[in-house]
Specification:
The structure holds three protein chains of three kinds. In chain A, 73% of the residues lie in helices and 2% in strands. Chain A is built from 15 helices and four strands. In chain A, strands 1-4 form a two-stranded antiparallel ribbon. Chain A has a two-stranded antiparallel ribbon with strand order 2-3. In chain A, helix 4 runs antiparallel to helix 5. The longest helix of chain A has 27 residues. By secondary structure, chain B is mainly alpha-helical. Chain B contains eleven helices and two strands. In chain B, strand 1 and strand 2 form a beta hairpin. In chain B, helix 1 packs parallel to helix 5 and helix 1 packs antiparallel against helix 10. The longest helix of chain B is centred in the first third of the chain and has 30 residues. The termini of chain B are far apart. Chain C is α/β, with parallel strands linked by helices. Chain C has ten helices and ten strands. Chain C has a six-stranded mixed β-sheet, with helices on both faces. In chain C, strand 9 and strand 10 form a beta hairpin. The chains are: A mainly alpha, B mainly alpha, C alpha/beta. The interface between A and B is large, with 40 and 42 residues.
């Protein structure tokens, strides 16, 4: 089956999902998968394309969630401007991190992102007046589109689907432009990239801002879906899940993180009856190690290679720019 | 004034263990360039081993400590041999991802084995605090400071005075020359990682009885260890020691005078500030051993 | 034009006051024994090293700042160690080199504006042209990191040319090349000059240097010891002494 046919089939399936899915629970899983797909795509921009690992992405997610929740709860804004503000606030945080990235790369960047997330997490727990601390913010209103409320699962599903599609489009356009090439060039060989006029400062910050803004969108969508926000959004488990989705799905591709998101949202739910979540997390850890050894480029690129009849790749070499 | 001194003393207790964590990680991260996010898990391992040996097997306290350190070393050696050695030539990111995997796996194993409830680790010291002038300190804490100091001293001696230590320093300064001189590079790597992990386990075994043991205690420990390493400069033993003490004292003072909710933020903020302004570490002029 | 360039680091003075002028539209070679400071000069001119003293100017304006700013002025360099984007195809390598030839902003990219698509088409055409120029037409879709060494050096040259330099600095372009590859390189450098690009080359291969240069500048121990056309340099006693004092002699 050709790629296009496959994509078309998938699109139709997704668009009509509420009609053929048998239970509301399955729809819930798809909604969560959609939110995580946006998160995974955002992390992928930084990790897969720019080559910097951010373990603090949960911070952007959380900032987006809290911003959106607070604006709609306390200032009674409508959902849509709150969503945009969530993206903007998270994007601002991303700008700050981006500027830091100029001086630091690799492990130091990771440490700074973790520290940043740690500080934000502590603030959300301790600043009771703003965030209600560990008790969280309940009763976050559901979005409204004109006269219709989007509270119903089916309606919210379409909202998330649209957002995920938009996120994918943004990433796709970015990656296949000179901006995307600049990012990859900086990852591959920074002095060479600079010698042809690519401004490392500008592009790293740009990648960080867009990445963070997307994560903020995911956060806002999450807040208005679960209708409750607490410091738990900063839990490291979310970050870990994101990283696994990107690494397993295929960093440096666009489809990879989406597949990863679907897989690692559906899988825990499917296994929920069989396995306690601690076992799942343990499995995640083992899976991550195994991935690095056996499938370092992730699932999607490995399938690509198999289709093209190439030998299995060795760990650590960066994946090429994928056309997808 | 007494409050200040009290905080300082408490800070030393913490600081001594942070120094242990930091020295271990500065060897692993600073010398071996392994971004060991699982470092805190060896700390947790140390704490739980002490608990297991004491509470379940009923053996004496010092045996438990020794067991914890030994287990830390063994676990570290296994980890290096099985996971890190095959990846030796790979990029630092790959190793980082593997260690993240180890982190998650170890933590959830602890969770499964011991459950999520925090455990109190019994110790043989009297609970009544000793009073030294205006200060009061629980005997167990005094023991922690003494033990930490002893271990730190032992680590120093090992690195600076023994042939093994010289071999370690040689390996990380110039691997090819060391290899030509007959230094068994592979084994040195394993020993270094095991040593670093043993120190982390020691820190856990010492602090466990002071506080509580719970599965996620390693998360903060890892980050604080990184904080100490960054403060002191990579590969810098003296820096790690001083950095650890500094962090412990800063945390105690912060918790006492500013706000206890934000005490852990001290380490985070330290990382950010030092990396921004003095990336080589606060004590950069002191000599790197590798 | 380089004036009184001084570079010192780690207590070692790499360049102790180097001044020279490069005439536009010519090929100038910078030679000297190993350690004379040639690559250091390149690094200082193109922004990879900050000189402790001195000024560089190009086209009557001072040249300075970060490497990307200098590239924007039309000054592009290659590197001594083979420098390509290893996991990208040759085509993508060169398209990256064309970065400055496009203007698309983030917003127009995200909006998918038609102007962006047209620009991309132009870039693709330019990339193909440059790849043909260096003779790698049949390697266009190969991954750069997997090409043989000599071809990788050509990719490097293509990337630099794609950036449409007015001043091209080549750092040991012939190193590791076979005789035949060097002949082709010489012809290519001459064709580059015909396109009104000024070329400054650092090289060790004397035959190549004497064959293509209009002017030769000799560096030793961080100073200029001679300047002039190839014939006069070959006869210059200071130059001969400098080379005999090291392991190489001018061929």
């Amino acid at each position: 089956m050709t790629r296009r046919a496959l994509a078309a089939l998938l699109a139709v399936a997704l668009l009509t999902a509420p009609s053929w899915l048998t239970s509301a629970y399955h729809l819930h899983v798809l909604i969560m998968a959609g939110i995580f797909a946006i998160l995974a795509l955002s992390l992928n921009l930084l990790l897969g394309y720019t080559g910097q690992l951010s373990l603090g992405h949960a911070a952007f997610f959380g900032i987006g969630a809290y911003t959106s929740a607070l604006l709609t709860l306390k200032l009674e804004w409508s959902f849509w401007p709150a969503l945009v503000s969530a993206a903007a606030t998270a994007g601002l945080a991303g700008w700050a991190i981006g500027r830091l990235a100029l001086k630091l790369r690799g492990a130091y960047f990771v440490l700074v992102t973790i520290s940043f997330a740690g500080v934000i997490s502590l603030v959300s727990v301790n600043w009771m007046e703003l965030t209600n601390g560990p008790l969280g913010l309940p009763g976050v209103p559901a979005p409204e589109l004109g006269p219709w409320s989007l509270r119903a699962k089916a309606a919210y599903y379409y909202l998330v689907l649209a957002a995920a599609a938009l996120a994918y489009l943004v990433c796709h356009r970015l990656v296949h432009s000179r901006i995307g090439r600049a990012l990859v060039a900086l990852r591959e060989n920074e002095p060479l990239a600079e010698s042809v006029g690519i401004d490392a400062t500008r592009y790293l910050v740009l990648a960080a801002v867009i990445s963070a803004a997307l994560a903020g969108v995911a956060g806002s969508l999450y807040a208005h879906y679960t209708r409750f926000v607490s410091p738990e959004v900063f839990l490291f488990t979310y970050t870990v899940t994101m990283v696994i989705m990107v690494v397993a799905g295929g960093q440096g591709t666009l489809v990879g993180p989406v597949i990863g998101a679907l897989l690692f949202t559906a899988l825990p739910e499917a296994l929920r009856e069989a396995m306690a979540w601690q076992w799942q997390m343990l499995a995640y850890g083992v899976v991550l190690v195994a991935l690095v050894f056996f499938l370092p480029k992730g699932i999607v690129p490995s399938i690509e290679r198999m289709r093209r009849g190439l030998p299995r790749s060795q760990p650590a070499s960066r994946p090429p720019l994928q056309q997808c | 004034m007494e409050q200040l001194l009290q905080h300082l003393v408490n800070g030393l207790v913490l600081g001594g263990t942070y120094a242990l964590l930091g020295i271990g990680l500065t060897l692993i991260f600073g010398l071996m360039s392994v971004v060991n996010f699982a470092h805190g898990e060896f700390y947790t391992l140390g704490a739980y081993t002490t608990f297991g040996v004491l509470a379940l097997a009923g053996w004496p306290f010092f045996v438990a400590l020794g067991a914890a350190i030994l287990l830390g070393a063994v676990a570290g050696a296994v980890c290096e041999r099985v996971l890190l050695r095959p990846l030796r030539g790979e990029s630092i990111d790959t190793v980082m991802l593997v260690m993240i995997g180890v982190w998650i796996a170890m933590q959830n194993t602890e969770l499964l084995v011991w459950g999520g409830v925090a455990r109190s680790i019994p110790h043989p010291f009297p609970t009544a605090p000793l009073t030294l002038g205006p200060l009061s300190i629980a005997p167990v804490r005094l023991f922690v400071v003494a033990a930490a100091a002893a271990l730190i001293g032992a680590a120093w001696l090992l690195i600076q005075r023994t042939r093994l230590g010289t071999a370690m320093r040689a390996t990380f300064q110039d691997r090819d020359t060391a290899a030509l001189m007959g230094v068994p590079i592979g084994r040195i790597h394993t020993i270094t990682f095991a040593f670093g992990s043993a120190l982390a386990a020691a820190a856990g075994a010492l602090l466990g009885p002071v506080f509580l043991a719970y599965p996620s205690m390693g998360d903060l420990a890892s980050l604080k260890a990184f904080s100490v390493v960054i403060l002191g400069g990579l590969g810098n033993l003296a820096g790690a020691t001083l950095g650890g003490l500094l962090l412990g004292i800063a945390e105690e003072l912060g918790a006492g005078y500013v706000s206890s909710g934000y005490r852990d933020a001290v380490g985070f903020v330290a990382i950010i500030l030092v990396l921004l302004f003095r990336p080589a570490g606060l004590f950069a002029r002191a000599e790197r051993i590798g | 034009m380089v004036e009184e360039l001084r570079v010192a680091f780690g207590g070692v003075t790499a360049l102790a006051g180097v001044s020279f002028t490069v005439r536009p539209g010519t090929i100038t070679s910078l030679i000297g024994p190993n350690g004379a400071g040639k690559t250091t000069a390149f690094n200082a001119i193109t922004g990879y090293l900050r000189p402790s003293h001195g000024r560089v100017s190009w086209a009557s304006a001072p040249l300075g700042g970060r490497p990307c700013d200098i590239a924007r002025r039309g000054v592009v360099r290659t590197f001594q160690k083979t420098s390509v984007f290893p996991t990208l195809t040759v085509f993508d390598n060169v398209r990256t080199g064309l970065h400055l030839r496009a203007r698309a902003s983030v917003w127009s990219v995200l909006a998918g504006a038609r102007r962006v698509r047209e620009e991309e088409a132009r870039i693709a055409d330019s990339a193909r042209a440059v790849i043909e120029f260096v003779g790698l037409g049949d390697r266009r879709d190969e991954v750069a990191g997997e090409l043989p060494y000599g071809e990788q050096r050509l990719v490097e040259l293509a990337i630099a040319l794609a950036a449409e330099p007015q001043l091209l600095l080549l750092d040991e372009p012939a190193a590791g090349m076979t005789g035949g590859e060097k002949e082709r390189l010489i012809a290519m450098i001459r064709r580059i000059r015909e396109r009104h690009v000024t070329v400054l080359v650092v090289e060790h291969d004397m035959k190549l240097v004497m064959g293509i240069s209009d002017t030769v500048i000799v560096l030793n121990h961080g100073r200029v010891i001679a300047t002039g056309p190839p014939a006069s340099i070959q006869a210059n006693p200071d130059v001969i002494r400098a080379y005999l004092g090291s392991s190489r002699a001018p061929a």
